[in-house]
Automatic annotation (TrEMBL):
The keyword Membrane applies. The keyword Glycosyltransferase does not apply. It is found in: Membrane. GO terms for biological process: iron ion transmembrane transport. Keywords: Membrane, Transmembrane, Transmembrane helix. It comes from Mesobacillus subterraneus. It comes from the Bacteria. This is Membrane protein. It holds the Pfam family Nramp. One of its GO terms (molecular function) is manganese ion transmembrane transporter activity. Its main location: membrane. The chain crosses the membrane at residues 37-55, 76-98, 110-131, 143-161, 181-201, 222-249, 269-295, 307-324, 330-354, 366-388.
Length: 396
């Protein structure tokens, strides 16, 4: 494979994962936590980046060296486990895709004044269009890269306009006033939870970047992906912090929109529309692609009609929102389950790393295993807490 082509694929996989993570929920949670934690939210971002890198490097390396998708690795570890993991990922991907479509609809409303449902329908058609062209993989990579750059550049502009106290943010990143564990888990879940961490790993596998010789490139792509998502998170945090530090009120109905509007007036509000739309549609594409990649090796029909299945997945997500509206209870319920997908998936991968029938004579670095094990334990405890407390709240 040509060097230029390989570099493009590695960057495409990184942007697919990063833009999958940067969705409407990402924009909202970053603003809300900045409002409550102020400069100390920098510490939450710092810790979550370390955890994200540890989880993603482990998972992507083991997918690459085994040359198998996560569900097939899980079935090799324990028969039926891959089907269970696939069911969790697909359910989470579908539910969150409904939320992403809703976010795209709201963005179109901000930009053009159309109803959210009409906006959602048009956005769904754009996402479907990507998978109807002959070289869907290349189009998807390029779309993710362009939209990723657009989001970052526009958010940088708003950050500078908001004029945040950067010095205070830097100090509190390392010496926070308070530590919010739930915020850390929410950020980790929003960046590498559910389907997101597999988006780039499965994309590299589809593109033929696999095997032990590809591990340096895979590791670099995994870290780049977290870097892109984290850069967006940091700039958005600083933009929100600049507004909050000035004592301006954040609208609870749409927190990130009010940050952009306070920073740059009506122009800022329209910029938010572009950022929200880019974030939502790239997340729709990433969720659909990755969710279907989890069932294509378990079903010959899906494998044969791969792109058609992705189109159907996006169409169902869009129609559910257009016909019913945002199903908040489903989103919250699956959100609780989503917190548990990362420790299950990462735990399975760490076990797989020591099974010769899966990885041959590959020796997984001990520090990565220890790093991964700590993440599994921490995320299991916090994910369990979310699950136990989230479901009763849902049905009150």
């Amino acid at each position: 494979m040509e060097k230029k082509s390989t570099a493009s694929l590695l960057l495409g996989a990184a942007f697919l994962m990063a833009t999958s993570a940067i969705g409407p929920g990402f924009l909202t949670q970053t603003t809300v936590f900045t409002q409550s934690l102020m400069a100390s939210f920098g510490f939450v971002i710092f810790i979550s980046i370390i955890i994200d890198i540890g989880a993603q490097m482990n998972i992507w390396r083991i997918i690459a060296v085994s040359e198998k998708r996560a569900q097939d690795i899980a079935n090799d570890v324990l028969p039926g486990l891959g089907h269970f993991l696939a069911a969790l990922v697909v359910a989470g991907g579908l539910a969150f895709n409904i939320g992403n479509i809703a976010g795209a609809g709201l963005a179109v409303n901000v930009l053009f004044g159309l109803s959210a449902k009409t906006g959602a329908l048009l956005s769904g058609i754009v996402a479907i269009g990507i998978f109807l062209v002959r070289e869907a993989g290349k189009v998807m990579d390029r779309f993710a890269q362009i939209m990723g750059f657009v989001m970052i550049i526009l958010t940088i502009f708003v950050m500078f306009t908001a004029d945040p106290p950067v010095g205070e943010a830097v100090v509190k990143t390392f010496v926070p006033d308070r530590i919010d564990l739930l915020a850390i888990v929410t950020l980790v879940g929003g960046t590498v939870g559910g389907y997101i961490t597999f988006a780039g790993g499965h994309r590299l596998l589809d593109a033929g970047i696999k095997g032990r010789e590809a591990l340096p490139e895979v590791t670099k792509s995994a870290v780049t992906a977290i870097g892109i998502a984290s850069i967006m998170r940091i700039f958005l945090f600083l933009a929100a912090f600049g507004i909050v530090a000035q004592g301006l009120a954040i609208d609870p109905a749409n927190p990130p929109a009010s940050v952009f509007q306070h920073a740059a007036g009506n122009v800022g509000y329209k910029i938010f529309g572009v950022v929200m739309w880019a974030a939502a549609v790239t997340s729709v594409v990433g969720a659909a692609y990755t969710s279907v990649s989890f069932i294509q090796t378990l079903s010959k029909t899906v494998a044969k009609h791969h792109n058609l299945t992705i189109v159907t997945f996006i169409a169902i997500s869009t129609l559910v929102f257009v016909l019913i509206g945002q199903p908040v209870k489903i989103l919250v319920l699956v959100g609780s389950f989503n917190g548990l997908i990362l420790p299950i998936a990462l735990g399975v991968m760490l076990i797989a790393a020591y099974k010769t029938k899966i990885v041959g004579d590959y020796k997984h670095p001990l520090w990565m295993t220890i790093f991964g094990a700590i993440i599994v334990i921490a995320m299991t405890i916090m994910g369990g807490y979310t699950l136990i407390n989230g479901i009763p709240q849902l049905f009150k």
